[in-house]
Amino acid sequence: MALRINYNYSADFTLVNLNQTELQQNKSLERLSTGFRINRAADDAAGYFIANQLKQYAASLQQGTRNANDGISISQIAQGALKEVYNILVDIKSKVIQAANTSDDTSRGQIQQDINSLADAIAKIFKDTEFNGINLFSGAGPTTFTIHYGGRIGQELVMTTASATVQVGTGTNTPSTVAIGGTDYAIDVTSQTAANASVSTVDALIKAVDDMAAKFGSYQIELEKIISNNETARVNTSEAESRIRNVDMANEMANFTKLQILMQSGTAMLAQANAKNQLVLQLLR
């Protein structure tokens, strides 16, 4: 057995292995404390890139779902307003039929005044129906909302509302006019002939309101399906990211325990290797 004073190969070799074990143990401890297998690009460059891509896509889907929920809110607000308008139009139709069955001009004038009051209520609904400060039934023209619901370019739903205005008549001899989507519906019961014609006019107006409500209902149905699909995709994407980024705690704990044992045995062996130099001293005595 060769004994040297200036160089102890066994101790040096053991120290190198001990340092490597300590480095691996520190990395294992980091993985256990963070729960991540990949904490930085150096841990797994390809895995780090893929996991980050999946993470940002899942975040985009989550924001897309929030946007779609905003779209549903717009649709529900519009449908609620149109339901109230529909109920008022039902009352207006009853009064139009009543006027058509009345031969007294004075009575028809009073009915016209009642209709004008109801038309004013419709005008207020159209004026006050808003989402985030934006009027849904602006008289200036259709209002467009673009709902970005996904994480890719082009994943959007365009919601368009119809313009709606009301010209409220005054007094007993001036009819009211409701305009929806550029079509005017004059509700005039000041004469027998006008009252008879207004029956079909109100029917057409009710249909126009129903069509608007149906369109918003279709938007809501589509957005609900989009949200369902988004959530499924988000969960699956997050799961894929987790499989790449996260650590298997059971396996990593077993690995950490193994490294602890190697550290203890390596430290003991380093002490044994250093003890060899003591033999040289004994020979020199």
TrEMBL record:
Stated family: Belongs to the bacterial flagellin family.
Matching entries from SUPFAM superfamilies are given as: Phase 1 flagellin (SSF64518)
Which source organism? Sulfurihydrogenibium yellowstonense SS-5
- Name the keywords, alphabetized: Bacterial flagellum, Cell projection, Cilium, Flagellum, Secreted
One MF term from GO for this chain?
structural molecule activity
Q: What is this protein called?
A: Flagellin
Note the InterPro entries from the entry: Flagellin, Flagellin_C, Flagellin_C_sub2, Flagellin_N
What subcellular locations does the record give? Secreted; Bacterial flagellum
Q: Mind telling me which GO cellular component terms the entry cites?
A: bacterial-type flagellum; extracellular region
Query: Which branch of life, at top level?
Result: Bacteria
* UniProt domain Flagellin N-terminal: residue ranges: 5-140
Predominant location: secreted
